[in-house]
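Write out the 3D structure for:
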Amino acid sequence: MARRAPAVIAILVGCSAPHEPAAPHEPPAAQERTPERAPVRTPDPAGPATPVAIVCCAATPALDQPPDIKLRLGHYSNPRRGIGLVFDRTTAQAKLRFDGAAEVLKLDRQHGAGTRIDYIRRVGQVVLQQWDDGRIVVFVPGADDGIDVRRDGDADPL
């Protein structure tokens, strides 16, 4: 008989608000059992299950921003490519900060092809492109092409 690998139980937990501890769970009196009446369990031939917990909480704060600010300021990301950034157009000069970086890039606006606006760091260095339909592409040093990012939350101004 072949030996089976131990079972793994995955528990995924997601949250978008601060964690509040749950009230302790107490079984109803009807479900309580006395030791002499407890069912007998046979061991699983695969061995006990190993619980694994993966917790993912959004780091982006939920802010109460008016619609005109939401159009000019927000957090953008591409989870598949592992990139996130805050893009702020609330002032005359656009600003961008990549997640985990302290440096805030100041970008100048320049008309691109069609309905596209290019945000450049200096002449010839496009950092971000934005289209009228809301599509945004960011260019990261070391990447071969632009990375599509989507707005996924509010952000504080840079």
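Residues 8-57 form one domain.
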